[in-house]
Amino acid sequence: MSRPLYRGVSGIGGKPLAEAACYYDPKEPSENGIGGRGGARKRHLAAVAVRIGVLVLAAAALVGSVAWAGTLYAGRGAAARAAAAAAHRGYRRLQEQLVTDLLDIGELAGGGVRAKEAEVCPPEYENYVPCYYNVTDAVDVSDLGGGVVISYERQCTRDGRATCLVVPPRSYRIPVRWPSGKGFIWKDNVRISGQEFSSGSLFKRMMVEEDQISFPSDAHMADGVEDYAHQIAEMIGLRNEFNFNEAGVRTVLDIECGFGTFGAHLFERDLLTMCIANYEASGSQVQITLERGIPAMIGSFAKKQLPYPYLSFDMVHCAKCNIEWDKNDGIFLVEVNRLLRPGGYFVWTSNLNTHRALRDKENQKKWTAIRDFAEGLCWEMLSQQDETIVWKKTNKRDCYTSRKSGPELCGHDPESPYHQQLNPCISGTRSQRWIPIEHRTTWPSQARQNSTELDIHGVHSEVFADDTSSWDSMVRNYWSLLSPLIFSDHPKRPGDEDPQPPFNMLRNVLDMNAHFGGLNAALLKAGRSVWVMNVVPTNAPNYLPLIFDRGFIGVQHDWCEAFPSYPRTYDMVHADGLLSLEKSHKHRCSTLDIFLEVDRILRPEGWVIIRDTAPLIEAARSVVTQLRWDARILDLDIASDEKLLVCQKPFIRK
After folding, report:
1. Cβ distance 648 to 607 under 8 Å?
2. Contact between residue 361 and residue 456 where contact means Cβ atoms under 8 Å apart
């Protein structure tokens, strides 16, 4: 007996989940056992009796099926045995459904004896981000005193983590669909203080219009982002920004991206930009950028390396970001060098680069230090125009042996460090992935990867081809499975074609166990207007370098910790084999802990698709009911031991 899933994704008609959501009432006696002792004892005895009855019936069904299967297998011949096996699998599915239904009946007959639903967090948790210093509505930064230094470094502990449901603000609304959402967002969906509107930065321009925030387009800006991107292209030696792909540029790391304006523009040019910025209590660059539908995550140039492999980005962009590149012997520039591919570009726009600013002796000293550090990294300054400078990382390894000064080459050189301390040495020079960007396969062909490219990652082309084919089929199945759930109150008329969810129903997907990035590739191949955050768990085989080499973006992450993002930032969360992975590592944390984090970063009315073995899926369904998700178990194939758990997060209002 599955609970119905409600349609109405991002405003697709039908009854809103807000009206149908479950509520936890602390005064409800059947949920919490508050009531007379006699009534509680009767309910307990009834529950025990029902469970015993369920076990007896299940055992009888299992014994009967074994005896029945034995008679089938007594037949002779391969054909008879194959038919018997197929019949047995079908009968086993009926058994599993019988047991599931009996357990559901047992819950109902037992007077609601089931796992207690998670409680709703207090209002100050609306924008809660674990692992970072969180300033709530009740705390003013100015009240903390001038001597307090807020640390932006990620600091995770598994104790003391919130175990309640982070609910949206009272006036939260389902985000506007892409591509309209790129131009404006609902004001109450993000936390702003008013100070954000005073910034004159090209990438921090916004206008408040009643209940929405709009972002000026190039047509309304004399010095718009289109002119800026065109300028960068010319400085690199290209005709315009439409030629970035031809120069080998596909992935861009945008440091302190403002509100994602540069990334939004480059997306139209087939470039994929990852925005990173510090945690911010209000006016968050990451939160607003994600709300607009542009990739972003919390990340800091502080004491630790960013959770990306070396040699992963074709361009790193910093426009008036607050990074002091001249400090600590240029170690932040060394980190940029680690992330850049050979031949990649570092674009730096700063007031410090103007002739007027360089009249100041202190500014001259800073500029000289940065220039010397860049030379020590074997960067070539291609051009300088106004406030913008473009450096190009060397594509020749022997440059590092012929320099007069600069950081040493790394001895111990981990490819994908997970929040390790910043390393003051040059990494990646020994890697097989040291391939200049101008020699790489360009987008979109790079997503397919040839056998030579796959050999670098230890992946056989046959395995990769099978994975690609499997995900192409799976994405088609996902879309067909979601269709009846979304359009459940629109019965199909005779002769009508099956309805399909809109191509832009989803703008972003978080893939919790991305493997080779197959889901990402299949969604793009199917023409979905979506980008994927490919997550490689720290306890899984590390194919994150392959994901970046395919022209996608991703990150390493430990799912026993909080993901570095704000609440309500993803339309769909997908997990293939993650439960099995965690089980193989002795359940380092509970499934409920992981799902609570998924609930935090999932938007109201967002979807969760979990693919795993049947026993783990059945166990997971009992957990997600505690989160009030609407859940349904679906079979993948009669010959498969895997199942799908398709869930939708309700829109819980206060």
Report:
1. yes
2. no
Dihedral pair phi/psi, residue 143, rounded to 5°: -80, -10
Supply the pLDDT for residue 639.
74
Is the torsion defined by CA of 493, 496, 502, 505 positive or negative? positive
Cα–Cα distance for residue pair 299/564, rounded to 1 Å: 8
Closest CA to 275 of 325, 231, 313: 313
- Residue 221 pLDDT > 80: no
pLDDT score for 151? 56
Convert the pLDDT of each residue in 509-534 to its tens digit. Answer: 999 999 999 999 999 999 988 999 99
Q: Do residues 341 and 314 lie in contact, with contact meaning Cβ atoms separated by under 8 Å?
A: yes
108-141 confidence digits (pLDDT tens): 333 444 578 999 999 999 999 998 865 443 344 4
Encoded amino acid at 407, one letter: P
Say if CB 573 and CB 539 are below 8 A apart.
no
User: The tokens of 303 are what?
Assistant: 């004491």
C-alpha span between 570 and 603 (Å, rounded): 6
Return the sign of the alpha-carbon dihedral for residues 144, 205, 568, 276. Answer: negative
The H or E element that residue 273 is part of is strand 272-277
Q: How far is Cα of residue 227 from the mean position of the Cα atoms in its chain?
A: 31
CA 197 to CA 206: how far, in whole Å?
A: 6
What residues form DSSP beta bridges with 209?
212
Residues 6+ apart with CB under 8 A from 389: 347, 348, 349, 353, 381, 383
Of 607, 475, 488, 593, the residue nearest 528 (C-alpha): 475
Average pLDDT, the chain: 81
Give the per-residue pLDDT at 135: 43
What is the length of the chain? 654
* Reported pTM: 0.81
Contact 125, 168 (CB under 8 A): no
Measured distance CA(515)–CA(521) in Å, rounded: 12
Pairing, β 379-385 against β 388-393: antiparallel
Outline where 507-624 has alpha helix (H): 518-525, 544-549, 578-584, 591-601, 614-624
HSE, CB side, 13 Å, CA atoms: give it for residue 5: 25
**Do 312 and 341 meet the contact criterion of CB atoms below 8 Å apart?**
yes
Phi, psi torsion values for 642, nearest 5 degrees: -95, 155
pLDDT over 70 at 372, yes or no: yes
Predicted pLDDT at 102: 44
Does residue 483 contact residue 499 with C-beta atoms inside 8 Å?
yes
pLDDT tens digits, residue range 303-359?
A: 999 999 999 999 999 999 989 999 999 999 999 999 999 999 999 999 999 988 899
Separation between Cα atoms, residue 444 and residue 212, nearest integer Å: 35
| Residue from 350, 212, 203 nearest 289 by CA | 203
User: How many whole angstroms separate alpha carbon 184 and alpha carbon 18?
Assistant: 23
**pLDDT band for position 216 (50/70/90)?**
confident
Q: Which of 264, 280, 334 is nearest to 305 (CA)?
A: 334
Residue written as token pair 């790489």: 440
Tokens 């019949």 found at: 87
**Cα–Cα distance measured from residue 599 to residue 550, given in angstroms and rounded to the nearest whole number:** 29
